[in-house]
Every structure is written in structure tokens, then in C-alpha cells.
Amino acid sequence: MTTQDQADADWRALDTRHHLHPFTDYRALAEEGGSRIITRGEGVWLWDADGNRILDGMSGLWNVNVGHGRQELADAAYRQMRELAYYNTFFKTATPPAIALAAKLSALAPDGLRHAFFANSGSEANDTMVRLVRHFWNLEGRPRKKTIISRLYGYHGSTMAAASLSGMGPMHRQADLPLPGIVHIMPPYSFDYARGGESPEAFAARAAAALEERILELGADSIAAFVAEPIQGAGGVIIPPEGYWSEIQRICAKHDVLLVVDEVICGFGRTGHWFGSDLYGLKPDLMPLAKGVTSGYQPLAALMIGDRVAETLIDKGEEFFHGFTYSGHPVAAAVALANIEVIEREGLVARVADDIGPYFQTRLRETFADHSLVGEVRGVGLIAAIELVEDKAARRHFPKPGEVGTRCRDHSFRQGLVMRAVRDAMVLAPPLVITKDEVDTLMDRARQAVDATARDLGVN
Ligand code: PXG
């Protein structure tokens, strides 16, 4: 054993002994000998402690939009730490980076979202949203308007409120969720939910009608808000069919239900637009964002607040008893500003829309559309899913969701590619700086992983 091997073994042993990871089966991890230790990143590449170079097909957790190892972001953090490492935004104080970032986000966000409330994670931004929505309807003198509707397979975070908004059964079961006042409707997931012979238009109308049916069932005077991701990311990259979003927007307006669009994954160029809202022409009342706002170089999130809610909040003149020590942290805000500057300077949003996004989507379909294990390839810009199925013609899933996906994910890792499995949908969201050569490498490795999975199953 070399000294390096010993060091890696020590990291693994320490990790197993003392560190409880998020979303992890602890016993299984220990039995497998512990975690893979990631030590360095540059561009779309990661290195692990064993010296393997791995293509990061997931941008970390859908967040490292400008790629790893950016000197200008490190410099921004360093400069800000030397100038003012910390001061808060409570009690009538502020710092220049927090102010500049609030103004910048207001300029980038869809029209009418002119205020930012800062948090540290997407979960906190969504918790803030739940607090604010309740407070808003109280201030409006309509205290019965409290129920929030979200969707199955939605993901909005892990705190009590955000996990309740999320439409994930296993999360709910472990913590007796959802909290009262949060209900779920079907997702616009045609692969699973469309009926045999149902056209995309008919499915879009039926999926959107599920919202109106729930509003009418519970009474519009009790519904505060509808919360949804433009494209459901962690739920398996669910792309809504044409017509779904315009209908949802119409229904929210008709019943005076606030529209909350969770941009935590779709924001900052992922779909070839600054926000998923721009892709679908949405006018959110509230818009949580996180992840790509700093490309993960610092934890920072914001709830963007539309004029209607902001005016009530400001004009009614009552203190909003809510906030975090690190709301608008100056170092995180400085890094966010530097990150947005990189996205703008390098034209990354247009690059995803016009160049690398179409290339990635075309290559993905060429590589997988005819594969016997692949029921559907879907995606927009640099976000995509490859749905692995037992029976392609019948669009039938495997009997135990996740088993085949996990197998494929493990093959992918061995091929030097991070590709996530959501149930049996293999999902990809590479950094926006990925080159065409790197897309080709990604496709080769993904194909090898899917082929190896097919061989395991005796399919060819
Ligand atoms: N909203 C959306 C749409 C998200 O995807 C959150 C809110 C919560 O953000 P924080 O920063 O609290 O994690 C998310 C987070 C995965 C995965 O494996 C996805 C997320 C987080 C961790 C893992 O797909 N999304």
C-alpha cells in the first residue's frame, strides 16, 4: 500500500465512522467500504482520491453551471473576505454585495419580480415562501386562504415545509409529512400518466385540469398558492407538454392563487434561458432560486418576490418576523455576482440555447432513441433524462423501480461519468461550459453504461 492509498483508506474509514451523509443508506454504504472521495475539480472534470478523472454529468447536484475550478470566483470570495467577511442584513443594516445582488437578480428575473429575500439553500427559500404566503394572505385580510398545492414527483427541499411541498412518498413517510395545508396533484409526466392513445394536447389539458379540480374541491377561498418547478428536476426531468403551463397560469389567475415557480434547478441558463419561467412565458408571483446563482461556490438562495406580494408586505407596515443569520451573506453574494458576470461575459445562456444545448440533445437522441432498454429520451438545453424500461413497445417500467437505474448509475461511475438515477430514469445536467468533444465523451460513456446494464439483464 502506498502512502496515498493509506491516506484514501483513512479518509474512508473516518467518513464511515463519523459522517452521516444526506439521502444515504448508512449500512449499505459501510458494507460497500465507504464513500468515493472527490478531491479536485476543473471545468467538467472531477478527480477522486484514487486518481480517477470523472466527467461530472450532473454539475455537482445540478448547480455547478460555470464548471469547477474557476479562479475568478475564488478571487471574488477572497477579496470580499478581506474587505468584510461578515455582516448581517437584520435591523436596518446591509452590505454592498447583498444590495448589488438583489438589484442584479431583480434585473434578470421575469418582469414584476423586483425584490429578493435571501436564504442559504433552496429549502430555506421555499420555507421562506411558505411563511411569506401565509403572512401575505393574513395581511390581505383573507386568513382562510392557506392551503398550498404542489405536485407528485416535485422536489422543493428537505426542511419540514420544503419536504412537505415535495411530492416524494418516502420522504413523507419518514417524518409524518406533509404538514397540514399542503396537498399534491399529478405531475405532467406523460410517460407514466398519459393514457393509451391520449394525445399530448389532451394529456396537457388533463394534467392542468387536475389543478382546477383540486382548487374547486377544496374551495378557491382556501387556496393560497400553487408551487411547481418549470421542469421537474429531481423527480426525473419531467418536461411538461405544450400547453400545460399556459393553462396552469390561467387557472391560478382565475382563482386568485399565487403562482410560485421554483427555479432552483432551471435557473441560470440550464434550459437555454435565464429562468425556466422565460422558456414557458411564466409570470410568477414568487420565485425561489438557489444552486446556479453561485454555481455552488458558496451556499446562497433567494426568494424573488413579485410586486403584488411586495407591495402588501411593504405597505401594511408590519414587521416580517423571519430571516437567517446568513441572509445575504456578503461573501456568498460577492461570489454570486462574480458567477453571474461569468455567465454573462461568456454568453453561456445563449450558448445553451443555440449551440451546445441543441448539440447535446441531438447527440443524446442519436445515441439512445433506438436502444432496446430506452423507453424515452427527453430534455431541453442541458438537462435530460433517458428512461430505462423493461418493455419499450408497451412503455412498461421494471417491476422494482430504481434497481436497474442504480445498476446503470454504478456502471456509469465505473466508466468515469457521473450520471444520476431517478427511479430508472438516468438524468444528466452537465456544466454549461461543456465542449462538443466533452459531450461526445459523455455520450460514449453513457452508452457504455446503458449497454453494460442491458448485458446484465440479458437484453441486447
Ligand atoms: N427546489 C428544487 C427544484 C430543487 O431541485 C431544492 C429546491 C432544495 O434546495 P437545497 O439547496 O435546499 O438542496 C432543490 C434541491 C438530486 C438532488 O439528487 C436534488 C436537489 C438537492 C439534492 C439532490 O436530484 N435539489
Please provide the count of β strands. 15
Amino- and carboxy-terminal Cα gap: 40 Å
Biggest sheet, strands in spatial order? 1-2-3-13
How many helices does DSSP assign? 18
CATH class of the largest domain: Alpha Beta
Q: Strand count, sense and closure of the main sheet?
A: 4 strands, mixed
Beta-strand fraction estimate: 15-25%
How many structural domains?
Answer: 2
- Which cofactor or ligand species appear? 3-[O-phosphonopyridoxyl]--amino-benzoic acid
Shape annotation: globular
CATH superfamily of the largest domain: Type I PLP-dependent aspartate aminotransferase-like (Major domain)
- Give the overall average pLDDT: 96
CATH topology of the largest domain: Aspartate Aminotransferase, domain 2
Under the CATH scheme, which architecture of the largest domain would be assigned?
3-Layer(aba) Sandwich
Uncertain runs with pLDDT below 50, 5 residues or more? none
Which class do the helix and strand fractions yield?
A: alpha/beta
Helix content: 40-55%
Q: What Rg do the Cα atoms give?
A: 22 Å
